[in-house]
Amino acid sequence: MGRKTSLWTALLVTAPAGAFTPGCTIVDSGLIDSLLAGDAGASDGAAGDGATGPRIAGDACKDDTDVTVITDSVELTVDTEGFSSTFNSNCSGTPTIGNDAFIPIDVLPGEVWHFHLAADPTDERSRDRDPAVFLVQESNDCDDRGCNNFSDECAGSFDEHFAFEPSAEGRWYVVIDDRQAGSGRYNLDAFRLLCGDGEVSHGENCDSGELCTNQCLAVLNNNRTMELEPNDTPPEANFVEIPIVGGEITISGAIGNGCYPDLYSIEVTAARPHIAISPEFPVGTPCDETSAPYEISVINRAGGVIDGTRVAGCPSFDRMLDPGSYVVSVDIPDQPDAPSPYRLKFEASTTR
Ligand SMILES: [Ca+2]
Ligand SMILES: [Ca+2]
Ligand SMILES: [Ca+2]
Ligand SMILES: [Ca+2]
């Protein structure tokens, strides 16, 4: 799995194509102008000789002369024919030997980004593609070995996506790559999420109003206990409000037919630092060895993963945590074709 320490800053979406939030068509007008002018761009994506106009991407990290820099939401179509494979990431355990394209992006601390890469379904090569998308940092010499901002969760031609919350100003490169050798045409969407602007962007679970936190996380509490999808990346995790009175809440969800986990956000306080998460997998049956495919883990703000434990084969979580924000991940490594329903009880108490 390409996830590991990456869940907080680099998580993913299950969203099969088609699960997109409507209204996400954001086009860089400068690129349209360049296309209309016949410059290198969306349809040919050639690595380019830099002779005229902006290029859609570079052929290697830091190859960004004349390449339009992403600074806001944009949709791009990039054909990697004409590019070479200059970069093989191993973050998923399978080298990305396909041609790769590098698109510079300048970010600021406090921003939240969501990247989504799909093999273009109108391209006859798409059925043989296995996309991967990730970020490398210019100031880190484009080293991807931390695997913190990476998505190759899905095998095959499924979409890939992840969220990114930069901690500092700087230049990064969005890399379009593939487990399969050769080229393809890809649709890359970069969304700069604006929580509170009144629009639910792709990559956001809500924007404002009731049952929506001021960080745009959909709230699960005693008024709504059913998971609200998509909840595959930390910025769109469901916030589980554990009531002070009683100290516990049970929520319902389902997982399957995808590649990404269900994510729940919790806030651990100094007053109630002991967190227990216990499942019913599937709903209505005791959790035992037959539930073994399920996994529960808890990810802290720094991206550190605390794996759940298994009691009689049942995945659960039961330990003291430092105060702060955490993301709880529920996953099945090889998800079944049909969504599998579950219930999760969250408990917060003073001591174990
Ligand atoms: Ca490559
Ligand atoms: Ca893939
Ligand atoms: Ca918004
Ligand atoms: Ca789900």
What tags apply to this protein structure?
352 residues, disordered N terminus, 33% strand, binds calcium ion, six-stranded mixed beta sheet, 2 domains, Jelly Rolls, mainly beta
List the topology elements.
Blueprint: H1 7-10, H2 29-36, E1 74-79, E2 101-107, E3 112-119, E4 131-137, E5 150-151, E6 160-164, E7 170-178, E8 185-193, E9 219-220, E10 238-240, E11 248-255, E12 262-268, E13 274-280, E14 295-300, E15 305-307, E16 309-311, E17 314-320, E18 324-331, E19 340-349
Parallel strand pairs: 9-10, 10-12
Antiparallel strand pairs: 1-8, 2-7, 3-6, 3-8, 4-5, 4-7, 11-19, 12-18, 13-17, 13-19, 14-15, 14-18, 16-17
This protein binds calcium ion (4 copies).
* Strand tally: 19
Main beta-sheet strand count, sense and barrel state: 6 strands, mixed
C-alpha end-to-end distance? 32 Å
Q: Give the names of the bound compounds.
A: calcium ion
What do we call the CATH topology of the largest domain? Jelly Rolls
Helical content, roughly?
under 10%
How would you sum up this structure, described in words?
This protein is mostly beta strands and 352 residues long. The protein has two domains: 7-193, Jelly Rolls; 219-349, Jelly Rolls. It is 3% helix and 33% strand. The protein has helices spanning 7-10, 29-36, and strands at 74-79, 101-107, 112-119, 131-137, 150-151, 160-164, 170-178, 185-193, 219-220, 238-240, 248-255, 262-268, 274-280, 295-300, 305-307, 309-311, 314-320, 324-331, 340-349. The chain has a six-stranded mixed sheet, with no helix packed on it. A five-stranded antiparallel sheet has the order 11-19-13-17-16, with no helix packed on it. The protein has a four-stranded antiparallel sheet with strand order 1-8-3-6. Strand 16 and strand 17 form a beta hairpin. The longest helix is centred in the N-terminal third of the chain and has 8 residues, at 29-36. The chain is globular and about 65 Å long. The chain starts with 6 loop residues before the first helix and ends with a strand. Residues 1-50 have low confidence and may be disordered. The structure holds calcium ion (4 copies). One calcium ion is lined by residues 194-195, 197, 199-201, 204, 207.
